[in-house]
């Protein structure tokens, strides 16, 4: 009978990405963007190991979480503006050069399938799908849906097999109940042997049981728990007494 340790080691070997390391020609952290972001600087110095299942990067705006997710997604071969490995569409290139400075250690025998979901470029991705119809038949009419509905349709139609899924603040388009639906999708992907890397501001999404949480900020990147997240503390405090915050803003 396979031991728990053997099963865990096997799962790690077969996950799409085991670790991310700086390339030999990667620049040293310095004043140049994005190397001057503490979290990015840490990745360029030490690299980062990715766990099986779901990993959340949580931090404030400008902390580097989206830059890291984007860099790893592009290094994996995904479109910088979202979609699968086969999607190639572009509006105005804005991605950082981070992907060129990273080298990925891939799992042995792991699936090559992947998908990058980023809120601000999904309209372009839907147009790409319309202009490049699938041989499988008619696709979902994404442009005829609300922003949130189209996100849920992407989850149902594209997040359907083990692989590497990168998500950049997916909660931006989702209601509370839809965010719960996304949690169920991420859990299913992990159970099926897939791997997820997600940047988020959502305490609801980050509450997924069993997920690894990395908090990103001026300290760089540090592992933490949901209860210890600054994000969770702030939301709890605000929901407990909104007036405590609002009187300073609206007085």
CATH class, named Alpha Beta
Biggest sheet statistics: 7 strands, mixed
Residue runs with pLDDT of under 50 for 5 or more positions: 1-10
Strand order of the largest sheet: 4-6-7-8-3-9-10
SS content category: alpha/beta
Termini separation: 67 Å
Query: What is the chain-wise order of helices and strands?
Result: HEHEEHEEEHHEHEEEHH
User: What fold name stands as the CATH topology?
Assistant: Rossmann fold
CATH architecture assignment: 3-Layer(aba) Sandwich
Strand content: 15-25%
Global mean pLDDT: 84
Individual helix count: 8
Oligomer: single chain
Note down, in words, how this protein is organized.
With 251 residues, the protein is α/β, with parallel strands linked by helices. It has a single domain (4-250), classed as Rossmann fold. It is 36% helix and 20% strand. It has 8 helices and 10 strands. The chain has a 7-stranded mixed beta sheet. Strands 2-1-5 form a 3-stranded antiparallel beta sheet. Helix 5 packs parallel to helix 6 (176-191) and helix 7 crosses helix 8. The longest helix has 16 residues, at 176-191. The radius of gyration is 19 Å and the shape is globular. The relative contact order is 0.16.
